[in-house]
Each structure stands twice: as structure tokens, then as C-alpha cells.
Amino acid sequence: MMEKIVIIGGGGTGAALAHDLALRGFEVSLFERGELLSGTTGRHHGLLHSGARYAVHDPAAARECIQENKILRRIAPQALEQNDGLFVALDENDLAFKPLFLENCRAAGIPTRELSAQQALALEPELNPDLRAAIQVPDATIDAWRLPLHFFATARANGARIHNFSEVIGFDQANGAVTGIRVLDHRRQREHDIRGDVFINATGAWAGKISARAGVQVPILPGPGVMVAVHSRLTNMVINRLHQAGEGDIIVPQRQLTILGTSIWLAEDPDLAELPREHRQRLIDLCAKLVPAVKEAKVHSVWHAVRPLIALSGADDPLEISRDFDCFDHRETDNLAGLVTVIGGKATTMRLMAEKTADLICSQTGHNIACKTKTTRLMNYRDFYK
Prior knowledge:
The chain has two domains: 4-41 and 146-219 and 323-385, FAD/NAD(P)-binding domain; 83-141 and 221-310, D-Amino Acid Oxidase, Chain A, domain 2, CATH 3.30.9. It contains nine helices and 20 strands. An eight-stranded mixed sheet has the order 6-7-5-15-16-17-14-18. The chain has a six-stranded mixed sheet with strand order 9-2-1-13-20-19. Strands 3-8-4 form a three-stranded antiparallel sheet. The protein has 386 residues and is an alpha+beta fold. The protein has helices spanning 12-23, 59-75, 92-108, 117-123, 146-157, 207-213, 278-288, 330-334, 350-365; strands spanning 4-8, 27-31, 47-48, 80-81, 85-89, 113-116, 133-137, 140-142, 161-163, 166-174, 177-185, 190-195, 198-201, 220-231, 238-241, 250-254, 257-261, 299-310, 325-329, 339-344. α1 runs parallel beside α5 and α1 packs across α9 (350-365). The mean pLDDT is 96. The longest helix is centred in the first third of the chain and has 17 residues, at 59-75.
């Protein structure tokens, strides 16, 4: 009988992990303290990255994004709007950035198509008429809820047990290893113990809080960011500013809304991060430089999501922190067997994060089982509720 793997966290990474490990034949149980996808996964702006945004300052993340972009288009096309994206130059500084941007996109394997201002405006008439140039890339729009639900549906069909409103409040340890977790069932208001062979902390920005309950630390930096949704679909393509990644330089169409993003700051506790009031107007002003109609659009909602950034020594600016991910085997880092933490990454790379973590689990448990998620088409998200 295969080992029992317990996943803590019901976001995108947890969903992809449950799918991957179930495909490899493990006995899988997942626990989420609230509703599934109610953390960062269900709150992001829904951009399937081509990697172009990271090509200059984070080439490793750029390469991961374009590879996963292609895979997700094959295994879950029904969760995506394959609408492409434009990087738009508005001034001389943007034009000066263009050669480096194109060079790094080529190096990362990201397809690009240079457009004149007239060609860009023909594709997207609401763009700033004073734009200087544009570059088309294979960005796309994700349905932030449906995509991970495809993973959950397929995982459940392959035997994974998914438990929401089940909060992990403690760890049991013996002989230098994690042997179980204490779970608070919020529906029934009772606690119970769960045993397992390996426990995976896949709680994203909350990974530090969970690992602390096991007496270990992980280098996580919660990085909240505000998004603004405005009424009407102002563009059909994803719009980015052609410059070094910053705040207020992404516009993502989502059905009949337009999402403006994003700001960023660092927080000690993701549960206590508060939405700064001034960020709403700042995002509107910055995004209006790309699409002037943003200024007149009625605001639908304003919210924030918390990025799970990996803390790097000397990195004070959250915009400079890599969007790459890492897995921590606490047997190697803290002499605590049976516990693995995966942090960092983004929605575009959830499948890859799961693959690398599942590879580590196979190594720990002595199994040589290949990953199958690159080619296994995911079930429809509606099947999760059947």
C-alpha cells in the first residue's frame, strides 16, 4: 500500500499537488481551514503569464511561466481565455527598454510580435492614442477559481480526499519526525487527529504560520497587493506597460469586467494585512495611462491578495523579489522528517510547483514514479461537485 500524504492548504498549489500525488498512486488527504480557494488563489487578477513580465529581471521565473503557459493551454483550455497580451510603450523610456525586453524574451523562449502604434490601436481601440509601440505576447486570462477546481475535480476522481473548513492547529511529533496533525473541524466544532507518512505545507503566504506550529521556520514574506475591478470590458487582450515591472501596470479583462493591478507591500501576518485606501486611486491613475477609459469607468470592487514571496537576503524592494518557488525538506533543513514546505511561485506555475514537490516526496519514500500531469487532460471543474 502506498504512503499516506497529507496536504495542508486548499489553494492552487494544494489542488495541483492532490492531483499529481493521486496520479502517482499515493493516498492523499487535503485540509483547508476555510472554503477551498478562499486565500490568494481565489483573489488574484487572473493573468496567465507568458513570462514576458519577468523576462528582464527574473529570467528563471520567465522560463517557467512560458513552459507552464503552454501546458495549461493543453490540459485545461476550458479554464482559459486565450486572448494574448500587449506590452505597450508610452514614452522614450519605454522605447529604450524595448530592445532589452525583446532580447530577454527570445532567451526565455517567449514568442513576441512587434506592432506599430497603428496596429496596436486597431487591435485595442481603447489604448492610449499617444502610444509609441507595442509587443504582442502569449499572455492569457485565467478563471482564478475554475482552473484549480479542474485540478481538484481530477484529484477527487482519482481518490484524493478533500476537506474544507478543517484547520490544522497543531502537529504531533515523535523521534524527530512529524507523525500527525491536529485538525479543528469548523463545521462540527470538534478537534481530531490525522496520521500520515508525509505532510506538505502548501499554504502559500500562510506557510510561516503553519511551519511555526511544527517548530520550524521558512523564509516567507507575505506581499499583499491591491486590485480594482471596473465595470465594462475595456480591452479584449491583457495590457502591460513596457517597462521594468512595477505597480499599476497590468490590465486584465475578466468577462464583462476589467481588473486593474497591482500594488505591493510587505506584511508580517497575511491575516492582518489591511487594504490601504489610497491604493485604489493610485491604480486607477496609473492604469489610465495605458487605457484612458479607466478614469471614467465605474468601480465594481476593490480587494487585496497576499503573494507568498520567498525572503532573500538583502532584498528590501518587494518588486525585486523573485517570483520563483522552492521546496524545503525539513529533514535536511531542521532535522525534522516527514514535513515538506513549498513556497513562492504564482498561479501560472501551480502545476510545476506540484510536480517538483511530488518528485521530492517520491525521493523521500523510495518510489520512482514519473509525473503525468504535463499530458493528463483535466476533468471539467463541474465534476468536482458531482
